[in-house]
Structures are given as C-alpha cells and as structure tokens.
Automatic annotation (TrEMBL):
This is Succinate--hydroxymethylglutarate CoA-transferase-like. One of its GO terms (molecular function) is CoA-transferase activity. SUPFAM superfamilies: CoA-transferase family III (CaiB/BaiF). Keywords: Transferase. Pfam families: CoA_transf_3. It comes from the Eukaryota. Belongs to the CoA-transferase III family.
Amino acid sequence: MSGPLSGIRVLDLTSVIMGPYASQQLADLGADVIKVEPPGGDVMRQAGPMRNPGMGHFYLTTNRNKRSIVLDLKKPSGRDALLHMAASSDVLLYNIRPQAMARLGLGYEDLKKVSPKIVYAGAYGFSQRGPYAAKPAYDDLIQGMCGIPWLTGQATGETPRYAPMVLVDRVVGLQLCNAITAALFYRERSGIGQRIDVPMFEGMLSIVLGEHLAGHLYRPSTGPSGYQRSLARDRRPYETSDGHICVLVYNDKHWCSFFDAIGKSEVFAQDVRFSSQGKRLEHIDHVYGFLGEIFRTRSTGEWLALLEHADIPAARMYSIDDILADPHLAETGYIQQVTHPSEGEMLDVSIPTEWSHSVPEKRHHAPKLGENTVELLREFGYSDEDIRALLSEAAVQQ
C-alpha cells in the first residue's frame, strides 16, 4: 500500500464523472476504493471511443486504482452485502438523490447503525435545504444556472455556450474529495463520523461568484456584476503573424518592460490608460485592443524570444496534439504509455502531486465490470458457498 490515505477503505457507489473523479483522487492518494456498480455498470463505460464494450475512454480516465464489484442493491441480499462491507469501511460515497438512498434502506441513519464512524458523503445537484433539492442535475444544467454560458456571451459578444469540457463535475469533484479528506481528519482527532452533502450548484457558484459579484458584492451595489478583465472582449490568445500566443502583461513592471522591448517606452509615462493597475482595468478594452494590434506584427517565435528576454509571462497556444509532444511533460514523465490488461496500449496521465514521503502510486488499472466481485466478497469474509448463492440470486455479478 502507498500514499497518505493508505488503509482507508471507500465504498464508491457513484457513476458518471463527478463522483468517480473524486474517488479517483482518493484512490490515487492511496485509499482502497471499491467501485460498487449496478448490474449495467457505470454509464460512462459506454461513452466512446472504446476498443471493447464497457470500457469507454471517459471511464478509463476516471477509474484507475479502483476495484469493481457488481451489487444489485434492489435485492435484499445485495443491500445486505453492501451493509456488511460498510461495517468495516471508512467512507461511503454516492451521487443519487438522498431520497433514493433512503428508499433503498441505505440512508445515513441506516449506515450509522452498522458503522457509527463512517463518513457518508453525498454528491448531487442542489443543497437539500432548498426548493431545488429533488431536481436532477447535469454539468450543462449547472453551468447554465451558474451563469457560465451567459458570461461567455458577455465576453465574446457571441451566442452563449458551455465551457468545452465537463467543468462543473470536475471542479465540484475536487471539492468533494477535499470534504471527505477533511472529514477523515476530523474523525481521526475526534472519533466521530458524519454525513457530508456536496451540492454542484452551490459548489460551482463559490467559484463563479468569487470572481463575478464585483460591484454587487457591496450593499447597496457600487456597480455592475462581472470582473472587467475576465469579460474583456479581447482577452484571448493574441494572433501573431504566423499563429497565436498567450501573454500576460500584468503589473507595472511588466508594462514598463513591454514598452521598452517594443521601443515605445514613452507610452507608459504619457498615456494615463496604462499608468496603473486601476487605470488599465478601467480601460481594459483599449488595453487588450492595443496588444492585439501589436502582436500581429511579429511571429510567435519572435515574440517568445523578446518576451522571455523582457521577463514577461508568455507561452505558445497548444492544441491537444501539442500537449502530447510537449518536452517538459516528456521530461517529467507526466503522460505515460501503459499496458491495460484488456485494452492494450494506452496513454495514462500521472498523479499530478509530488511527495517526499507517502508517495502515491498507480496500483490498479481501471477494472472491467465486476472484475473483483469474488475477490472482494472473500476479503469481506464470505465463503465460496455464500458467494455462489449470491451469484445464483443475481444479487452480485462477476
């Protein structure tokens, strides 16, 4: 066993992205994560591209370091098996609505009876204290309710659109992982387990409103909502004579160095719109427009050399193919080619944190559906006769 969470056992009932992404973080940190799947498996197993049925690329990238058991929780013996496993587990993680867990006889009070110290973590759309409690939620819906498409429309002047990635699930998934590890730390000191609710809507709003309340932060309001710099129409990679470049000319030192580098040092001294952080924010459209015109005059390579010499933050704009060819990532071994037992050769993204002790490791490949059912039941004390009975009832599958 390896990693700082070595010895922690997690029963992971989640599917899709948010829950599995959170539990993969726990698994990467050393927790023994048992992926409890229904007979049909996690729905993301079917999200292609894939080489083999039930092993879609989304599933493979969010379920390493876990073991899979198939339990039919609607069958009494399947539910009993889960409760038996929970008695010696530290965390139960789920992402169906609490009402559905209660109907299955798997609510917090049910779990407390078999494991008083368990951390019972629920991840779903909305706080259970408001009128949206029972509403279904998906990444696109929560992005919309948190104003992300509206903000993109404000920033670009174009039709609102979602972020081109499953953003909310992953951001709130990290919040979920953080909450679970904090609850485990609290239990370590106090001996007390607890229930945790991590709602997507409120979790993502903590990110969006922290940036975009702006003048609405104050009562009465001192101005409009929206952080001006983030919403500036020209805040985007700059077009060069042969491509694009990402540049952040940000503080006074950067601006002095930038004007010196392009031979226009008098502008910083004479043009009040560039004279301070506050003035640049006040005239942000002019500032970005000015930079947009300047960067078109040279190639990306020329700009990178000039900006590096001037100590101004700059980088090439990458495509996914560029990322895969990046020399820094090659040197650190961040993206590796591995051999999956059923899927063959594939790329794997490394654990991004680095540790001097309790080093996390990749211990398991993303498992096939029910790959570890029999192994896990034996670990939890079931005899071969008990296992055959559960299999014959279809309460479990392998």
